[in-house]
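Researcher: Next entry: Pseudouridine synthase I TruA alpha/beta domain-containing protein (Ceriporiopsis subvermispora).
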Amino acid sequence: MSGPTPYDTWTREELIARLRHVDVYSEKKAAIVKPARHAPKPFDFSAHPRRKIALRFSYNGGEYGGLEAQKIPTPLPTVEGVLYEALVHTKLIDPKEGMDGCGWEKCGRTDKGVSAAGQVISLWVRSALGEVKAEADSAVEASTSSTSQDAKTTVGTSQPADAGEDATGLEGDFALMGDWDEPPTSNSLPPPTKPTTELNYVSLLNNVLPPTIRINAWAPVAPEFSARFSCRYRHYKYFFSPHGLDLDAMRDAASRLVGEHDFRNLCKVDPQKQLTSFARRILSAEINPAIPPHEDMYVLDLRGQAFLYNQVRHIMAVLFLVGTRLEQPSVMDALMNTDPANPKPPSHPGEPAPPIVESKPEYQMAQPFPLVLWDCGYDPALVRWQGGPEGAECDSGEGVYTHKQAASSLYGQLHALHERALVQAALDAHFLRAAEPFHAPPPQCLPVGHPGSVPIAPGTTLSIPTGAGSYSRTASYVPLLQRKRGDLPEVINERWRLGKGAKRFAARMGAAEPDDADE
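Model: Predicted structure:
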């Protein structure tokens, strides 16, 4: 039971007075309560000009279920899906119109787990300038023209041509005094100030995107520009450890890729696309040290006009087989020698003619994690990349570096991620060192016949690299050209058309587009 309260000793009159005071206070408090806020007014996209731009961005593919947005739910978000939501959130595009309404186009499609450092999309977005900029320029020109005309009139008035001998000589100094009482005209004042700086697309989007997707630059482009069809080349990089590999043999095999070849045996045939031609042109194929130079990391640099589905990962898988010396570099020629009516000659003098391989032998493609779309190349006259808003000065990195700049610096954010990755790599290296005194490494059998390799004893299990520390293990290696072959692409396409793809194929007839940039 609670103890006595202060009201126990109050008289009846005192209690009534107290209640009246409380009632008055409650009424005043209710009177000052703010009314409920109305729902925000819908954003009117039609009231803002639009312009077409290109966005250049990077993403960590390991965090996403691929680049392309999907119509059905996916276990992991897609890069396009997240980027689209960021554009909607910043009111740069109208969600009612969707991707089609803003003319969304991408340069190169990437599969689940594949990253990009120079991916590009083109689309129409809200602008702070647009037609407004042209109107402002016209107003300035009109103002300049009026001012020049006034100046000509003033010059003619200040020095009269017919001044007589009786003139005072002060006409030139005081002739304008008669104009002082005239009201100002509209020509004497500049028009209202119009925006001269474009929206900071890079900063706007990076402020709402996750750290695994970063907008690096944007560019104003012409209405007819296409991120896909205006691209001159795509440059892919595949990073790998040289441990157990013959780099010279890999370079020999890679050099045979340059030129136009049929890559049906170095890709995954996707029957939904119903491709009949698998010819693609490779501009360059090199095995280089990773930059910055690191003895434990090399990279395949592959540049081409367009790529087939999983083409780079299939090429890298064959290069791994060549690097282990389980296959000869000439196997690359054989895999591209698909037409019996037009056989390819050997790439080097003294080599036998490569055999005809009409369909793909069974082999495992390389892992997606080390693959990155490094660059999408365009005509510099069509695309001029910039990191900040149009009309603003470029950030040179000089001068006073404020706290706000440090917190929002894209370079600083990416550098921090890089430093963390270096620390993680150092930790993993020390974990390996800590285990070495108690656990011996396995015998090094690859590359076969290398002075530092041990002979392959009967029953030895070979660990063939497939990228990113993954291996395909076998105790009896079967040469690539002796393996079971898959069906011809024509057979795969027809089986799909007659099966589950019949309805989709019929709907797509007459609307097919050339396939490109699909890794």
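Model: Note for the record: Residues 409-441 form one domain.
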